[in-house]
């Protein structure tokens, strides 16, 4: 349904003229003008609008910008890569930060191209309450300590209470839920996970979980990772979001998805998320990358590439050396072979499941020499990352819309924009104005060519930006204009609960 069939008499700051407008909430897919004023959409009309500036976008799609719920890309250079992938809001909800206000303050002080937000980090709260590690330090400290056993052991009641109190403080500061990376401390008591879920349920926010091992992977796991999430949703009433179901479930994806379907059928609130790649990226010190744990995911040391040097790990001895010398160093782990049709099918089924939204799991850039420069552009050869950082959303459009025809264009756009907004909006009212092309909504908009939009990043050339986006607006401000980044544009605003 067109929001405005009668031409408006007002003059808008900007008019996007004659594009194919997609609004996933209403199902609108029609040629229209879109008016933008003071950061908001002020008209969507089948009739011509008047603007102080007008961009002819005929032949192009105008859609809500993508909302990445799973982005560990916290700096300007990472945001720029994601902007060229159609992202207008980048949220770190799986890992999060604690204290969360530290992340918001830093982003506000430095400026960001994209809207940004964070969940409360169970991991960092636990590092302090259980491991005695300093509180805070941002994502760098989180990665550096991810493999530290000091915080990974079972907690006593006093430690759990202290950890929950830190999470309460973060929720009071506007955290967008609680990120629970239990897969990085897989021996904790299931009762602790339930306690965190109850806290989230009582606060009316979502949990975002990196699941622990499935029973098929580690028979002696304290609880099956998927069953744990399902149990929490059923027993506490929390909305439980299952992060990157593809990379933790692997060949057991179908069983996990059936379990989630069953919980939803009984009234439980569970959502899932996936990205279209067969490899993950994390700190090489992660507990599940220990040589004696690799078999759970069907890995060997040679399936791991240590990003700072680009070396494929030769053997268990070398893996132990790297884990000891640089536990926070990022590594790519090749779990599923994207060139093998059987293994590729697990990724496809996870991503195409009806409950799945798109989340990139974008990672910080690794600088292989010299000091990191978060303002550098274009990314120099010594800056590398996982290709999902630069290409997730465009790869979905290329592969699942254009090549496979498995999703309509409107469906694919919805999974990257409206569906994440809807998932969040009950606890984050600001999200009711995102993921939509409607009058009164935020002017977070992308304009792209559906026939050519594509990812360019590969494992060998991981920072190649996606192409096909003519314009990317964040709060009505062009971050990408005529296919080129505006390096002065830092219009990103905080998203808080």
The CATH superfamily label of the largest domain reads: Metal-dependent hydrolases
What is the CATH architecture term of the largest domain?
Alpha-Beta Barrel
Give the C-alpha Rg.
22 Å
Number of strands: 23
Structural class: alpha/beta
What fold name goes in the CATH topology slot of the largest domain?
TIM Barrel
SS field, number of helical segments: 14
Number of domains: 2
**Amino- and carboxy-terminal Cα gap:** 30 Å
Q: Which consecutive residue ranges, at least 5 long each, have pLDDT under 50?
A: none
Secondary structure: helix percent: 25-40%
What is the quaternary state of this protein?
single chain
Envelope shape: globular
Instruction: Write down the CATH class of the largest domain.
Output: Alpha Beta
Averaged pLDDT, please? 97
Sheet with the most strands, sense and barrel status: 9 strands, mixed
Strand content: 15-25%
